[in-house]
Amino acid sequence: MDLLRIQHLSVRYDGKDILSDFDLNVAKGDKIVIKGRSGIGKSTLFRLIMGFNIPDSGIMSLDGVPMDHDTVWDIRKKIAYVSQDTDIGEGIVSGLIDEIFSFRANRDVLDKEKLYEILSILSLQRIILNKEYITLSGGEKQRIALAIALLSGKDIFLLDEVTAELDIVLKQKVVDLFFGNPEWTVLAISHDREWENFVPANSGNNMGKGIRIIDFPEVTN
Amino acid sequence: METYYIGLTGLVFSFLLLLIPLVISYYLKLKLISATVESVVRMVLQLAFVGIFLTFLFDLNNSILNILWVLVMVFVASHTVLKNAELKTRSILPMLIISMAIINYSMLLYVNRFIIDLDDLFDARYLVPIAGMVLGNSLRANVVGMENFCTEIKRNENRYLFSLSMGAEKTEAVIPYLRKSMRVALKPTIANMATIGIVFIPGMMTGQILAGASPMVAIEYQIVIMIVIYVTTMVNLLFGILVLIHKGFDDYGMFKKEILRGS
Which of B160, B251, B252 has the most A C-beta neighbours within 10 Å, making it the best mutation to test the interface with A? Predict the structure, then answer.
């Protein structure tokens, strides 16, 4: 069964069609790269899946549960969404992380050892936890958000241009991290080649189905 | 001790003082002449009206009328809060009035019963002026706090969305904004309390002393009033923001930008 189903999704924004009769089916373990020119509305798709924008028509469901104003809260608890302009908040990084893991949905999820491990994979030093979030560079903020997503214990990821501000080595590391886990379902919007060029290590295995590339449809009015 | 009445001559001399700001405004081209004149005229008219009205209210001293007048004050205060916080009144006003009415009536009754120990809990001479002081201060804090809450959540929308996408319930996601706007709005009240008596002698104390009360009586009232103002301001502010949280978001937890004026 499909994990995420999107059927006949249409949305207009500021009098402009962003999506028209859009369909997408995602199975567990799928790795999808979404491409398309800037400003076409790729981010809107993710915002729709998270329930941050409401479609004009169409149906979305996760795990067979159709999304509405009731179920959206549970859907959000299952999906980790990181976007290019994710903002975690004001204050010391470790405090912000603690706050996120004090939410009822995430309590007892935070594993400090795992946090340190992820930081080192993302080439971040532990000292960053004591810094003011606002003083971090774009790339550092990006990686902190990714680390939080990785720590959340979720297995569905919506990643919107998360490697844009990283150097080549780090881009590859992040792609390997997310696309390398056969259990995870990952949708990535990106202009970076590393995502579409990823070759699963276990291609022979039934889970490693390879990467699906979706060209975001151009809607003509 | 007797009170010296100011009288007509005194008032004329006080209006004479207004020539100073008008002359300064004229020579420095501050463009404040019409605003100054308008404000003074409004103040005089409103106070004249209130003077007449309060005389009438105090003479009559009818409990039900006093209670209703406080309700009018609550209504005007709530309306002013929303207007100054750049919020549309339609969806928020009724709830804000109810919450402010409950909070302020309870507080006033508590003060009159347990602190001043009045025989008539609804005595106009106490109920109305104290309600005025408390509401006036709450109003200021609510404007700052509610406006701050909305601008912060609008400006830092991504932070709010990140909390939601990390599985936060609405209450969990809005708490940082509630904290921040309450702190910002309460700071002046707290600072005020700490400097009172030294930096400035508050209007109520001045008024009581001028009217012939001994400084010790004035101080007792001032202490009580400061505490009552602080407590009521905080509770009014908290409930004002809770009303916003309740009314200002849709079922998906998205902030309704249409509650802001000019949207």
Answer: B252
